[in-house]
Predict the 3D structure of the following.
Amino acid sequence: RNMSSAGPEGRKKMRECNGLIDSLVYYIQGTIADHEPNDKATENCVCILHNLSYQLETELPESYTRTIYMQRRNISSNDKTPGCFGTRSRKVKEKQQDIPIPEEKSNPRGVESLWHSTLIRIYLSLIAKSTRNYTQEASLGALQNLTAGSGPMPFAVAQTVVQKANGLPSIRNMLHVSHPTVKKTAVSLLRNLSRNTSLQSDIARAVLPDLVLILPSSVLASDTACETTASICYTLYNLTQSSSHNARLLLSADGLPKIIAISMNDSNMFSKASRAASVLLYSLWSHTDLHSAYKK
């Protein structure tokens, strides 16, 4: 567990170690099957896998990069027609199109297991069943790492979490735990997931009211709480930017007074959250059909 946090070279060596990742996954599967999700060694295994999933997309061996990203590059090079708004419209179009996902192997080995749906379901199971904060945080953190990039792999993992494995209810429960870093990691994961336009309606329906509920109404007491608040605002920004329906959902959850209060707090420690809230307010105002509701 300590060695897995020793930097990129350490991660590379451990990912390449024959049988190591497979053994960790095998052990966790055993403890889940035996209904022992709070086992200390399971916590250690999950923390190692969490660390090995960090920067995974950028640190993948070239053989995997060629296999996973070749289709993506072919699509990108064939679609170079500029739209009315130049590069921005191309980016939106690229973001919204179906990114080709390589067929998942039925029997993954080694580094392939790190983004496989089997391990994603294991993380979600531990989030739902374990009461150990470190196990919860590491499971959420591994999913956060795997959904952090913009390529086919993070996109596929996000789809699995939200649509195939029905992971949102378990993640939503983590928003209401008392442990601040577990809550912060759950929000960061939701922020990553909310970047996928095809998943935004599902995410808003499942967690938007909960995100508004855990927004603070007054000045925060810690850096962690401030970062969590900023992440919530950016998640709400992603969910409402292109959806008047989701903006109305935020309004009906009484989110506007909280966001205004956060945006107006100019203390140094709170500035990150204040900026995020201001960005969210600016975006919400772009829904002109809601102006009269906002004013009320």
Observations:
- The chain has two domains: 1-66+108-179, 196-295.
- Residues 57 and 149 are 7 Å apart (CA to CA).
- Residues 71-97 have pLDDT under 50 and may be disordered.
- Residues 196-295 form one domain.
